[in-house]
Request: fold
Amino acid sequence: MKNTIDKLEKNQILSKEEFVRLLAISEKDDIDYLTERAKCIRDDIYGKRVFIRGLIEISNYCKNDCYYCGIRRSNKNAQRYRLSKEQILSCCENGYELGFRTFVMQGGEDAFFKDEVVCDIVSSIKERYPDCAVTLSLGERSTESYRKMKEAGADRYLLRHETFDNTHYNKLHPVELDPENRKRCLRDLKALGYQTGTGIMVGSPYQTLENIAEDLLFIKELNPEMIGIGPFIPHKDTPFKDFESGTMEMTLRLISILRLLCPKALIPATTALGTISPQGREKGILAGANVIMPNLSPKEDRKKYMLYNDKLSDGEEAAEGLNKLKESMRKIGYEIVEDRGDCIALKDKI
Reply:
């Protein structure tokens, strides 16, 4: 299997069948070799730097009813909230003082946040903090909507495709959600010049290794600047409440594969990874990730943005725990930096 890993590192692509075999490896020597190659590639490109993003969860209202999500519209137990412009700007002010130079506005598909509302907030952030990047993660929108937000100053957009396989997609989402529209959104974002992020849930219900292999081929085709993956974790108030979580082992393996597939990508060690294992975040960095996203949201609202059971929102996962996070990174040989943390590939184009 080491030959296959070397082939992936050299060519930055494999066949679907080769990806399936790589995903299925069980020998410790092979897994260790994959992890080490990914770590070396990441260190060669980005050094020992870890970039931080200030996550602001602006609303847990959502028009969608995705079967896996705790803020789906059918969840009557969710405590709904949305942040005002003033609250969002306050989060940015706090984050800037702490050293954050990227703000991520994430939320459900909330009709309140029309184009003019989002554009006004984005332009205000960019006016106050011109040295910062603004990332949006607000779901599927029209091409024109994406264009307006880009013109207002948005730099990046995160939209996980969740799964490339349409049959699998339809098992995770109600019929009104179209997997082809999801892919259209991602291609629009790339065409409009956003730094674009996509990704999947690892171990989602009904997922196969063949599904993941197809996801990897799609990611390579899309060539995103950012790739976010995390283990599926069930939520007690969803149709998938009794399904098993995805594993840390497969998530770490995929981080390493993605680092070899897209060497210059920005890959986070996600909150979900930290949720399923106390050392998940650190292991994600050691597997090839180079981004962490602490929570800047108001403390009183963090527990309400509960996408899955027991989602972390305090301790090292919180912005005010940044010193603890810095120390945990130092212990494994890495350093959190005060930087926008743009994709190296973008700098190559300048």
